[in-house]
Design brief:
Strand content: 25-35%
Strand order of the largest sheet: 8-5-7-6-10-9
CATH superfamily of the largest domain: MoaB/Mog-like domain
Number of domains: 4
Shape: elongated
CATH topology of the largest domain: Molybdenum Cofactor Biosythetic Enzyme, Chain A
C-alpha cells in the first residue's frame, strides 16, 4: 500500500490537460481560456454619450444653445451641429458630428428650443466615452489561462466575441457494480440496498460544471463488467467504477481493467475510509475504482477524483485545505490516515458521529473532511489538524 500523498502525486503525474476546443461563449462559464483573445474593433466603436443630456461643442464663454435635433441609442443616422447648437442625446448614443461634450439633463434650463447650461463644472469632453475607451482594436483582451467568470464572459461579448478556445470539461462515465443494488423508488427485495453512489457522484460532478455524465449499471460478472468498462472508456475521459475493488469472489474490477488494457498505477492506500482505491490509465484516460460504500466513495472523490478532473481542464482544485483546531479528543489506530466527516466553523473542526463507511448521514450534514495523520494515535482538543473544506455551495464557513 502507498500513502495518501504518494497516491495524489501519482495521479497528478499521469494527467495530460485535455486538448482545447472552440465553443460558443455562452457555454464557457467556469472554463479556462486556451488561447489569447484580441479585440478586433475599437470598443466603443464611436464617441458615445455616458449620460442623458445635451450634446454641445464646448466653448467656455457660451452658455446658451439652440436645440436642433436628437440622438438616441441605436441610431444609425448621424446629425451635425454647428457653433451655438445642441442636440438632445441619450445614454449610449453616438455624439453628433461637431460635438465633444455632453451636459447632463439635470444641469440645463430648457425654454422652447433653447437650453441654458447651468453647470459650473462643465468642461470639454465631460460625459463622453471616447472611441476605444474600453479597448482598442488589436489589443490583448484576455490571455490564455484566464478563468471565464460571468464578468469575463460579459466583457468578451461586449467586444464582439462569440466563441473562444477553452480547455474542455472531461466526459465522465460512472459504472455501478453490485448485484445487490436497487434503484430508488422501487421496492427492496431481501438482500437488496438502494443505490446512491450515482446520485452523489453525479451531483458532485455537476457542481463542478461537468455536463457530460453517463451512468451504466453492470452485474457482478467479469465478462459483463469488461464489456461495460470498454464502452465507458470509448466514450469518456474519466471512468469511475463503484464497488468490486476488494479481493472478494465477486470483485472483478481489477481483472476487467487488465482485460481492457488499463495500466494499473496503484491499488490500495493507507487510509480509512477508502483503502482499496484503484487508479489506472489507458493512454490519456483516467480510471478510478472506488469502493462501494457511500462514505468511502465521496471521501475518495474529494481526495483524488475531483483534483484530477480539475487538472484535466487546467483548473485549480476546488477543495481548500486549512489549518484548524480539533474540538474534541480523538483516538484511532496508527498505520492509516483517517478522513472524518466534520463541521468546520470559526477556525475549529468537530468530528461528527456515524463515521462508518456505509453511513452517509454524517456526510449529509458535514462541510469538511478532517484529516488525521497516519502515524499518530491520540489527538487532543485544541490540537492543530488539517481540514478539507468541501466545495458545496450551500455550506458556509464562518470566519473563513
Amino acid at each position: 500500500m502507498i500513502t495518501v500523498d504518494q497516491a495524489k502525486q501519482i495521479i497528478l503525474d499521469n494527467i495530460t490537460i485535455l486538448d482545447p476546443q472552440k465553443i460558443p461563449l455562452q457555454d464557457t462559464l467556469g472554463h479556462v481560456l486556451a488561447a489569447d483573445v484580441y479585440a478586433s474593433v475599437d470598443i466603443p466603436a464611436f464617441r458615445q454619450s455616458s449620460m442623458d443630456g445635451y450634446a454641445i461643442k464646448f466653448e467656455s464663454a457660451l452658455k446658451t444653445y439652440t436645440l436642433v435635433g436628437e440622438m438616441a441609442a441605436g441610431t444609425t443616422q448621424s446629425i451635425k451641429i454647428a457653433h451655438g447648437e445642441t442636440s438632445r442625446i441619450f445614454t449610449g448614443a453616438p455624439l453628433p458630428e461637431g460635438a465633444d461634450t455632453v451636459v447632463m439633463q439635470e444641469k440645463i434650463h430648457l425654454l422652447a428650443n433653447q437650453i441654458t447650461v447651468e453647470d459650473p463644472k462643465i468642461a470639454k469632453g465631460l460625459n463622453v466615452r471616447e472611441k476605444g475607451a474600453e479597448i482598442k482594436a488589436g489589443v490583448l483582451a484576455m490571455q490564455v489561462g484566464s478563468l471565464l467568470t460571468p464578468a469575463a464572459i460579459g466583457f468578451l461579448a461586449g467586444i464582439g466575441i462569440s466563441a473562444v478556445e477553452v480547455f474542455p470539461m472531461p466526459k465522465v462515465t460512472i459504472v455501478l457494480t453490485g448485484n445487490e443494488l436497487q434503484q430508488p423508488g422501487k421496492p427492496l427485495a431481501f438482500g437488496q440496498v438502494y443505490e446512491s453512489n450515482s446520485y452523489s457522484l453525479s451531483a458532485a460532478l455537476k457542481l463542478e460544471g461537468i455536463q457530460h455524465i453517463e451512468v451504466l449499471w453492470v452485474n457482478d460478472n467479469l465478462e459483463s463488467l469488461t464489456e461495460t468498462l470498454q464502452v465507458a472508456l470509448n466514450q469518456s475521459d474519466v471512468v469511475l467504477l463503484t464497488g468490486g475493488v476488494s479481493v472478494g469472489d465477486y470483485d472483478f474490477v481489477i481483472a476487467a481493467a487488465e482485460k481492457c488494457g488499463i495500466a494499473q498505477k496503484f491499488h490500495k492506500i493507507k487510509q480509512k475510509p477508502g483503502k482499496p482505491l484503484f487508479f489506472g490509465t489507458q493512454n490519456r484516460k483516467l480510471v478510478f475504482g472506488l469502493p462501494g460504500n457511500p462514505s468511502s466513495v465521496l471521501s475518495c472523490y474529494y481526495n483524488y477524483v475531483l483534483p484530477a478532473i480539475k487538472a484535466l481542464s487546467n483548473l485549480p482544485n476546488s477543495v481548500a485545505e486549512v489549518e484548524a483546531e480539533l474540538e474534541t479528543d480523538y483516538e484511532k489506530p496508527t498505520g492509516l490516515t483517517h478522513f472524518l466527516k466534520g463541521i468546520y466553523a470559526n477556525g475549529k473542526a468537530k468530528p461528527l458521529n456515524a463515521q462508518e463507511s456505509f453511513r452517509l448521514s454524517s456526510f449529509a450534514h458535514s462541510n469538511c473532511l478532517i484529516r488525521l495523520r497516519e502515524d499518530q494515535q491520540y489527538f487532543v482538543a485544541g490540537e492543530k489538524i488539517t481540514v478539507m473544506l468541501l466545495p458545496d455551495h450551500c455550506k458556509t464557513y464562518k470566519n473563513y
